[in-house]
Amino acid sequence: MAVNIISLAQGTTFGWLSPYLPLLISITESPLDAPVTDIQATWIASLLCVGAIFGTVLFGWSADRFGRKVSLCGTALPLIGFWSCVAFGRSVETLYLARVLAGLGAAGVFLLVPLYVTEIAEDRIRGTLGSFFILFINTGTLVCFIAGTYLSYHTTSYIFIFVPVVFLICFTRLPETPQYLVHRNNLPAAENALKILRGYTASPEHVDLMKKDMAQLIAQAANRGDSSGLTRSDFGPFYVKKALMIGLVLVTLNQLSGCFALIQYAAQVFADAGSEMDSKISSIIVGIIQLAGSYTSTLVMDRWRRKTLYIVTALGSCLGLTMMGVYAYLSVAKVDVSQLYWLPVASLSFVIFIASVGMLPLTFVILSEILPDKLRSFGGSLCTTFMWVVSFVIVKYFAAAIEVLGMHGSMWFFAGCCLFGAVFNGLFVPETRGKSLDEIKLTMGCDSTDM
């Protein structure tokens, strides 16, 4: 819970744009010295992704150099900077800087929270703990949707600037991951971290469990070697190439599902789709549904097979996006859809719910599980960087895509990507639920002599 306070803080930065974008572009009510133009609005939305591209490299290096804990503490600083810029900035350039800072924080959060959780969690609950990441992200998004509806522009920033501060206060009391400490040959600290994380006591049973865990961690560290000395041969084995390929495809599909772009432009999407409901209220409804989906994910993550859950939720997302596209098409074709005014909100809510149950959180759970020990930081950084590149393209040109393809064409494109994701997962992604990281490597085609 403590580590995911930073996920909550990050979620508020994701939810900030949708309720306040209409205010920023308002000629009479903009809190800036001049109203934001349409082109400037697309840059405000997409510069978060630019910051995240550079942040992934920075925090990927930091995670190995200074450790997971110190690096996670570092993610709070750009988020504090984001809310400071929003609170005191008066120009669009200040908002550009704010979004870049939010992106730096997002890069660290998306890379380090799943990594930290994977390295501290027991195999039987690793998936459930991993799903809390998206749950807290979505909670922060919803809270900001609500704040943006009922609180003023500046009041919101004055409140949310304290969330990353609370994270620093709570998280500094937690230990570094045992896996990282063993890799750094700090065995006493690793044992102490295990005692805190597992609740081990001096009982004979717990002592035996401690010895077993330490032996496993030492073996993994010996196999991992020095991750700062990666060579071309480290990328030679088939299972390594397969893991990286799966990771890159999964993070791409995570963004091509359209969910992140739809959340960023939620209010505009409902208006363009022809919905007669208040756009801000519609956004709050979607946020609630998204949160419900994330909570459901924590309940089913370690009860359903990963493959089954991903395929079902990807197909469900495909169906919801298709229905939203149908409504938008009928609206453009001048068909009377007044009796179906609820359909855009219902369709998008269903997409966000079903994707939050499986497709979205599973991306990060599976990615952290399938990457080999030695390449986990580098591979995670590579995949996350690529995800933010794809995200930048989608968010920056989402409005242009709607102009060219129409709302219906854009929704059908996202639907097709979700359908492809279901097929890809069924054919290429291994089952990881309840398996140790070594067992997953064997499933990926790793030779037992390389373990």
From TrEMBL:
<feature type="transmembrane region" description="Helical">
    <location>
        <begin position="308"/>
        <end position="330"/>
    </location>
</feature>
<keyword id="KW-0813">Transport</keyword>
<feature type="transmembrane region" description="Helical">
    <location>
        <begin position="129"/>
        <end position="151"/>
    </location>
</feature>
<dbReference type="GO" id="GO:0005886">
    <property type="term" value="C:plasma membrane"/>
</dbReference>
<feature type="transmembrane region" description="Helical">
    <location>
        <begin position="70"/>
        <end position="89"/>
    </location>
</feature>
<dbReference type="GO" id="GO:0051119">
    <property type="term" value="F:sugar transmembrane transporter activity"/>
</dbReference>
<dbReference type="InterPro" id="IPR020846">
    <property type="entry name" value="MFS_dom"/>
</dbReference>
<feature type="transmembrane region" description="Helical">
    <location>
        <begin position="411"/>
        <end position="429"/>
    </location>
</feature>
<feature type="transmembrane region" description="Helical">
    <location>
        <begin position="379"/>
        <end position="399"/>
    </location>
</feature>
<feature type="transmembrane region" description="Helical">
    <location>
        <begin position="95"/>
        <end position="117"/>
    </location>
</feature>
<keyword id="KW-0762">Sugar transport</keyword>
<dbReference type="InterPro" id="IPR005828">
    <property type="entry name" value="MFS_sugar_transport-like"/>
</dbReference>
<protein>
    <submittedName>
        <fullName>Sugar transporter</fullName>
    </submittedName>
</protein>
<keyword id="KW-0472">Membrane</keyword>
<keyword id="KW-1003">Cell membrane</keyword>
<keyword id="KW-1133">Transmembrane helix</keyword>
<feature type="domain" description="Major facilitator superfamily (MFS) profile">
    <location>
        <begin position="1"/>
        <end position="433"/>
    </location>
</feature>
<feature type="transmembrane region" description="Helical">
    <location>
        <begin position="41"/>
        <end position="63"/>
    </location>
</feature>
<dbReference type="InterPro" id="IPR050549">
    <property type="entry name" value="MFS_Trehalose_Transporter"/>
</dbReference>
<keyword id="KW-0812">Transmembrane</keyword>
<dbReference type="InterPro" id="IPR036259">
    <property type="entry name" value="MFS_trans_sf"/>
</dbReference>
<feature type="transmembrane region" description="Helical">
    <location>
        <begin position="243"/>
        <end position="266"/>
    </location>
</feature>
<dbReference type="InterPro" id="IPR044775">
    <property type="entry name" value="MFS_ERD6/Tret1-like"/>
</dbReference>
<feature type="transmembrane region" description="Helical">
    <location>
        <begin position="157"/>
        <end position="174"/>
    </location>
</feature>
<dbReference type="Pfam" id="PF00083">
    <property type="entry name" value="Sugar_tr"/>
</dbReference>
<feature type="transmembrane region" description="Helical">
    <location>
        <begin position="342"/>
        <end position="367"/>
    </location>
</feature>
<feature type="transmembrane region" description="Helical">
    <location>
        <begin position="281"/>
        <end position="301"/>
    </location>
</feature>
